[in-house]
């Protein structure tokens, strides 16, 4: 069983590193190790559009260590990585290797901007079958532009020495040799460091889940208007009406509010007249009365008025909440709805 690192390693000059901090156990321990070796650490947290890691946990980890943390938002460039990954997908639409290359390349840019010596991560050799096998780690280092400058403190002694190790900027003997999927050694280290409030291990990324992956494939096929619009993929029930129109139906008050908040300015909002049912976001330009009526049918179908007489549904464009109209819902059966479901 490895023991917690407690001593600092003196260096001939100030050494600076940029660390990817997710708030999880591995990245927190990696940051602790590097920081305790006398290295000035700056942390980066990459904000996923659909949520993945907990930004609050990342900030807590940084605060505990007394290091600066900056938040970088993934954007359209990241979506292109998801759309056309060089190294392919995992079980669903998760381009794990390409995802890391994208993030680490941005970390490399930040490293150069702040004059840091290297980038480090909490990756563990062999922990994840797609992105943390030896060959994958090599691809990530090379293609991110960090060859020789990407340190994995938890597995460093099982990997080729990096430039900062070779130059004596960081003591390789104080780095670790953890491998595999078990987290026993990390948990032991965390206990020694007094780290107790880390999240449980989990996949986290929605791109690994088939329903979410199908929604992402749908917008890649039919188009989307901006990166912010993709955030709504994680909420509600999604329906492809035709190639030009899509509907999202909220499942509770929280989702209804989130869908309205993230609606595109050219979308339409649809609700029951008494607003005691789901909110529907209709996406597409210049919908016809038939499209509005079908969308209204979805609103009624997922409300408590499903089996009532046909109801009127109000709708208005997102960019003009005072331009309210009414339309009667279509009667929709399960057999008509299911083929539309994404």
Question: Could you walk me through the main structural features you see in this protein, from its secondary elements to its overall organization?
Answer:
This protein is α/β, with parallel strands linked by helices and 342 residues long. The chain has 2 domains: 16-193, HUPs (Rossmann fold); 235-340, no CATH class. It has helices spanning 25-36, 55-65, 76-83, 96-114, 134-143, 163-166, 184-193, 210-222, 253-261, 289-301, 334-337; strands at residues 16-20, 40-47, 68-73, 118-120, 150-151, 237-242, 245-249, 268-272, 280-283, 312-317, 325-328. The strands form 2 sheets. The chain has a 6-stranded antiparallel sheet with strand order 6-7-9-8-10-11. A 5-stranded parallel sheet has the order 3-2-1-4-5, sandwiched between helices. The longest helix has 19 residues, at 96-114. It is elongated, with a radius of gyration of 24 Å. The model is unreliable at 1-11 (pLDDT under 50).
Secondary structure elements and pairings:
Blueprint: E1 16-20, H1 25-36, E2 40-47, H2 55-65, E3 68-73, H3 76-83, H4 96-114, E4 118-120, H5 134-143, E5 150-151, H6 163-166, H7 184-193, H8 210-222, E6 237-242, E7 245-249, H9 253-261, E8 268-272, E9 280-283, H10 289-301, E10 312-317, E11 325-328, H11 334-337
Parallel strand pairs: 1-2, 1-4, 2-3, 4-5
Antiparallel strand pairs: 6-7, 7-9, 8-9, 8-10, 10-11
Helix pairs in contact: 1-2, 1-7, 4-5
């Amino acid at each position: 069983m490895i023991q917690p690192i407690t001593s600092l390693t003196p260096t001939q000059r100030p050494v600076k590193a940029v660390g990817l901090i997710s708030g999880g156990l591995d990245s927190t321990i990696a940051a602790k190790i590097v920081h305790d070796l006398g290295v000035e650490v700056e942390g980066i947290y990459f904000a996923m559009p659909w949520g993945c890691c907990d930004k609050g946990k990342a900030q807590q980890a940084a605060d505990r260590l007394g290091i600066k943390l900056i938040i970088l938002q993934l954007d359209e460039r990241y979506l292109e990585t998801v759309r056309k990954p060089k190294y392919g997908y995992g079980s669903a639409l998760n381009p794990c290797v390409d995802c890391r290359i994208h993030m680490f390349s941005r970390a490399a840019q930040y490293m150069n901007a702040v004059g840091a010596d290297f980038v480090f991560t909490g990756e563990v050799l062999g922990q994840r079958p797609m992105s943390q096998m030896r060959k994958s780690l090599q691809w990530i280092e090379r293609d991110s532009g960090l060859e020789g400058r990407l340190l994995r403190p938890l597995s460093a002694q099982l990997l080729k020495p990096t430039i900062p190790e070779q130059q004596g900027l960081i003591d390789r003997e104080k780095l670790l040799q953890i491998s595999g999927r078990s987290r026993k050694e990390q948990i032991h280290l965390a206990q020694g460091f007094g780290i107790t409030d880390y999240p449980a291990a989990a996949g986290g990324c929605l791109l690994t889940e088939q329903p979410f992956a199908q929604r992402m494939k749908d917008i890649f096929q039919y188009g989307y208007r901006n990166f912010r619009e993709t955030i709504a993929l994680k909420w509600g029930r999604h329906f492809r009406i035709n190639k030009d129109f899509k509907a999202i139906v909220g499942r509770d008050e929280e989702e209804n509010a989130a869908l309205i908040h993230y609606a595109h300015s050219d979308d339409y909002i649809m609700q029951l007249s008494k607003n005691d049912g789901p909110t529907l976001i209709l996406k597409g330009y210049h919908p016809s009365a038939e499209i509005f009526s079908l969308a209204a049918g979805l609103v009624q179908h997922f409300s408590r008025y499903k089996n009532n007489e046909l109801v009127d549904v109000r709708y208005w464009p997102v960019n003009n909440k005072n331009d309210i109209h009414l339309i009667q819902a279509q009667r929709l059966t399960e057999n008509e709805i299911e083929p539309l479901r994404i």
